[in-house]
Amino acid sequence: MTGFALRRLLVLPVVLLGVSVVTFALTRIIPGDPTDRLVGSAFLTEERRAEIRREYGLDRPYPAQFAAYLAGLGRGDLGTSFLTSRPVAADLRQRFPATLELTAAAMVFAVVVAIPLGVGSAVWKGSWLDHLGRVLAVLGVSMPVFWSGLLLLYLFFFWWQWAPPPIGRLEPALLTPPVVTGLLTVDAVLAGDGAVLWGALRSLALPALALGLAAMAPLARMARAAMLEALGSEYVRAARAFGLPERTVVVRHALRTSLLPVVTMIAVVFGYQLGGVVLVEAVFAWPGLGQYAYNAVANADYPAVQGFILYATTMYVGLFLAVDLLYAVLDPRARAT
Amino acid sequence: MRTADAATSAGLAMTLVLVLVALLAPWLAPYDPYATDPGRALRPPSAAHPFGTGVFGEDLFSRVLWGARLDLLIAAGAVGIALVLGGALGAVAGFAGGLADEALMRAMDVLQAFPNFILALGIAAALGPSLPNLVVAIALTNVPVYARLMRSQVLTQRVAPYALAAVGVGNPMVRVLFVHLLPNTWSPILVQATLQSGWAILQAAGLSFIGLGVRVPTPEWGVMIGMGVQQVTAGQWWVAFFPGLAIMWAVIGLNLLGDGLQDWLDPKRR
Amino acid sequence: MTTPLLQVRALTVEFGTPRGVARVLTGVDLDVDRGEVVGLVGESGCGKSVTALAILRLLRPPGRITGGSVAFDGRELTTLPESEMRRVRGRGIAMIFQAPRESLNPVLSVGAQLGLLLARHDGLGGRAATRRALQLCEMVELPDPERVLRAYPHELSGGMCQRAMIALALACRPALLVADEATTALDVTVQLQILLLLRRLRDSLGLALLLITHNLGVVAEACRRVAVMYAGEIVETAPADELFAAPRHPYTRRLLAARPRIGAAPAGDPIPGSVPDPLNRPTGCAFHPRCHRAQSRCAEQHPEPAVPSAGRAVRCHYPEP
Q: Which candidate in A125, A235, A337 is best for mutational testing of the C interface (most C CBs within 10 A)?
C-alpha cells in the first residue's frame, strides 16, 4: 500500500512542473508588448515602460523568467495582479471561501440527488424512475451551466420573486457575520444568526443549483451504469442463487462494487466545477475565484489568469491523487499493484 | 421500438436538423443576423419575430439559425483538428516507442492534468479572442484523447498476427498498419468525435460567453446568451433563452447519436 | 421406493428472441434421490445450464418456464411465490457455477461473503459466525482457513475459489448441490481434487449432487447415474456403469465413441451435422437428421421415453441393442 502511494506521489511533481511550464508559456506567447496591457498604459512614457519591464523581469530571457517564476512559486508568490495591484496569491486566498461554499453546496446537492437516482434507475430498470432519471441526466449534461443559471434566475427572481437579486452572497440589507471560516452559512450558524443564515442560503441556492444540476447528470449516469453492470454480474447471480434477499444483494454486493467508478466520477465532476464556477459566478456576481478569473480575462490581467489556472489545476491534480489513494482503500485489487 | 433505438433515431434526427439549419441558414433566416432596428428593440416573441428581438432590435430567430452554422463549424473544426493532430501524435508514439513515446505520453498527461475548460480558457486567453483561436483552443484540449486512442490501437495492431505475417513476407510495417489500422480504428474514433462535438459546442459557448471566443455581435449561441444576461433580471427572458435551447438541441442530438453509435458499433451488441 | 428429492417432469422453457420464440427445453425429466450423485451431460447449447437455472427459478427474461413441474422435497417449485422460492434457494438447493472467481464479489473478503450467508440462513453473527466459517473452510479442505477468510478472490487460485464457493454453498445447508460446469474452468489436476471433494462431502453430509458437465470423464469419475441431454430434452438415463458399457441411444453411443483414446485409431466420423437451432427444431425426434439409425417414423413421431430395464430410460424408436 505504501509503495502504491509513494509512486503516485513521485509522479506528481513531474506533472505539476509540466503544468507550470504550460501555464508560463501561455502567458508569454501573447503577442505584443506586455506593458500595453497595464491599466493606463496609454500614458506611460518609454522610460517608465522600460522601468516596469525591469520590475517584472520581462526584459530577461525566457528561461531566466521561468526560473524566477518557479522560485516565486516555491515561495508561494504567484505574481502581482495588474488589476488589483495586490499579490495574486492574496487575491486567491481572499476569494477562496466564497467559491468553496458554492462548490460544496453544488456537490452535496449533486451527490444526494444523483446517487439514489442512478441506483434506483438501475434497480428498477424500465420504470418511470428510470425514464425520469435518464431524461434528467440527458438534460443536465447538455445544458450550458450559465444558461441554466439565467433560467433559474428568471424563474425564481423575476417570476416568483423568491430569490434575492444576483449581486453576491448576501443581500445588502444583511450584515456579514464575524468571519471564522469565511463560509457565510457556517459563520452564521456559529454566530447564531438565523436571519443571516437564511439570507445566505437564499443567495446560495440558485448558483449552487445551476452548478449542481450540471454535476448531477454525469454522476447519475455513472451510478446507473455501474449498478447495471454489477447487477448483471456473476457474483450477483451467485448471491441470488444462494437465496440472499434482493435488498442484501443490491446493497451489500452491487452497491459496494459500484462505489468505485462513482467515486472516480465525483472527481471528474469536480473538475468540471472548477471551470463551471467561472461561468456561474459571472452570472450571479458571486465574489469568488470564478468571478476573479472572469474579471482577469476581461481585463487582460495575465498574472491573475495564470494564478487562477495554476490553482485550479493543482486542485484538480490533487483531487485525482486523493481518489487514487481512496481507491486503494475501497478496492482490494488496487492494493495488489 | 426499444427505447435505445428510439433515442438513437431521435439523436440522428436532431443532428440532421442541426446540420440542415447550419447549411441553409442564409435561406431560412428571415432577417440579416446583423441587422439592427432600434425602434423594435426587446420585443417578446411574436409572429414576425418568433424568438423576439434583442437589445438593438435584431431578429433573434435569424441569429439563432446563423448560430447553428457558426457553432457547428467551430465544433467540427475543433474536433477535426484534434482528431488529425492527436491521431498523428498517437500513431507516432505507438510506432516509435521508447523515448519519443514516453515524452509524448507525458506531454499528454500534462495536458490532461488541466481541467478541460480551464485549459481552453488559458489558451484562448493567451491567443486572444477570435474565431480561429477559439477553434485552436478547443482543439488542443481534445488532442490527448485521440492521441491515446490511436496509440493503443497502433500498439495492439503492431503485434497482431496478420501484421506480423504481412511484415514477414516483406511488406513495410508502416504500410501494413496504414492499410489495416484505419479500418479498425474509425469506429471508436467516430463515436468519440460525435460525443466530443457536443462538448465542443458547450465549450465554445462558454468561452464566448465570457468574452474569450468570438465577440459581440457575431451570431454565436454563447455570445447571444451573454447579450441577454442583463435582460433576464428585467424580465426579457427571450434574449438569452432561445440560444440556450438551441445549444441543448445540438448537444442532446449529438450525445444521443454518439451513444447510439457506440451501442451499434459495439461488437457485443447489448 | 422413496420419492426422489428432486423430481423434474416435462419441464419446458422458452426464450423470446427478435426472430421468434425459441424452445430451449422441450420436456425435461430428471430425478435426483437423496444422497445420490447424478450427472447431466450434453454438448454446449443443449440446455443443461438452462435446466439448472430453471429448477432454481433463476431464469431472467426473455427466458421463462412455460410448462412442466419441478418438485423438491415434495413441494412444487414452479408455482411458489418468490419469497418462498428464496428460502428454497441455498437452504434446499444450492448452486455453484463455472467461473469461481467471477462468482465471488471482488471487493469483499471470502469471510465477509460467508458472513452474509451465515447471517441469512443460520442467523449467526460475530464469533459464532467465524467459528462456523472456519469449520466450513475445513470441510472443503482449504489450507490456512484464517488466511482464506481474510483474503479477496483475486488473491486465491482458481481451485481455492471453487472450494470457497462450495463452502458458501454448504453454509446454506442444502440437501442438493447443483454444480454447473463447476470444474470446467480449472486445471485438470484441480478438477479431480474438486470432484473427489464433492464425493467426500456427499459421503459425509449425505448431500445429493447434480453434476452438470460436457466432460464424460467427470461423469465416469463421480456419478452413480447419468442423464444425457440433447436439444432440450433428456434422451437417455442410466446407471453410469451401464451407460458406459452399453449405451442405448444412438446419440449417446456416438458421444462415447467420439472420445479420443490413447493407442486406438479415431473412431470414425464425428457426428455429422450440428445441434438443431431451438428456433427451428426438426419434426419428430430431434436427433433424427444426424442419426444413422433413423427411419421414416423418426421424422414423424416424437419418441416418448421407453424403459428397457430398471433404472434406464431411452427416448428412441430404434435404440441400439
A: A235
What's the pLDDT tens digit per position in A28-53? 776 666 666 665 666 777 777 777 77
Residue C17 — very low, low, confident or very high, per pLDDT cuts 50/70/90?
confident
Length of chain C: 321
DSSP C39-94: EEE--TTSSHHHHHHHHTT---TTEEEEEEEEEETTEESTTS-HHHHHHHBTTTEE
Ranges assigned E (strand) in chain A: none
> What is the CATH number that goes with domain C6-84+217-314?
3.40.50.300
Other CB atoms within 10 Å distance of the CB of residue B39 = 8
Selecting from C89, C102, C105 the residue whose C-beta is nearest the C-beta of A257 gives C105
CA nearest A206: which of A83, A102, A334, A74?
A102
Q: Which residue of A has its CA nearest to C152?
A: A332
- CATH number, domain with residue B197: 1.10.3720.10
Residue span of the structural domain in which B49 resides: 2-29+41-269
pLDDT in tens, C116-170: 999 988 888 888 899 999 999 999 999 899 999 999 999 999 889 999 999 999 9
Contacts for C180 with CB less than 8 Å, ≥ 6 apart = C48, C49, C52, C95, C96, C97, C98, C212
Contact C19, C277 (CB under 8 A): no
Closest CA–CA distance from residue A155 to any residue of chain B (Å): 9
- Phi and psi based region of residue A131 (left: phi greater than 0; alpha: psi -120 to 50; beta: remaining): alpha
Is B35 inside a domain boundary? no
C-alpha dist (Å) from residue A184 to A89, A98, A107, A165, A171? 22, 8, 17, 17, 12
Chain centre to alpha carbon of residue C290: 25
B201: buried, middle or exposed (CB in 10 Å: 19+, 13-18, 0-12)? buried
CB contact under 8 A, C105 and A242: no
The length of chain B is 270
| Global pTM value | 0.84
Tell me the three state secondary structure of residue C32: strand
For residue A190, the SS3 value is helix
A237 neighbourhood in chain C, CB within 8 Å: 58, 97, 103
Residue B238 counted as domain residue: yes
In a domain, B237, yes or no: yes
- High-pLDDT (> 70) share of chain B, %: 96
Domain boundaries, chain C: 6-84+217-314
Does residue B34 lie in a domain region? no
End-to-end Cα, chain C, rounded Å? 28
Percent of residues in chain C assigned helix, strand, coil, to nearest 5: 35, 25, 40
CA A312, chain centre distance (Å)? 8
Chain pair A-B, CB pairs under 8 angstroms: 143
Domain count, chain B: 1
CA-based Rg of chain B, rounded to a whole angstrom? 22
